[in-house]
Amino acid sequence: MGLKIKFIALLCFFVWKNASCQKNKNTPDSLPNVVLIFTDDQGYNDVGVFGANDISTPNLDQMAKDGAKLTNFYAAQAVCSASRAGILTGCYPNRIGIHNALMPNSKKGLNTEETTLAEMLRSKGYATAIFGKWHLGDQKEFMPNNHGFDEYFGIPYSNDMWPLHPQQGPIFNFDPLPLYDNEMVIDTLTDQTNLTTMITERSVDFIERNKESPFFLYVPHPQPHVPLFVSDKFKGKSNRGLYGDVITELDWSVGEIIKALEDNGLTDNTIVIFTSDNGPWLAYGNHSGSAFPFREGKGTAWEGGQREPFLIKYPKKIAGGVTIDAPVMAIDIYPTLAEVTNSKLPEKIIDGKSAWSLLSGKTTESPQEAYFFYYRVNELFGVRYGKWKLYFPHTYRTMDGQEPGKDGLPGNYKMVDLNEIELYDLESDSSETKNIAAAYPKIIAKIEKLANEMRIRLGDSLQEMEGMENRAPGIIH
Question: What is the mean pLDDT of residues 347-354?
Answer without folding.
Answer: 98
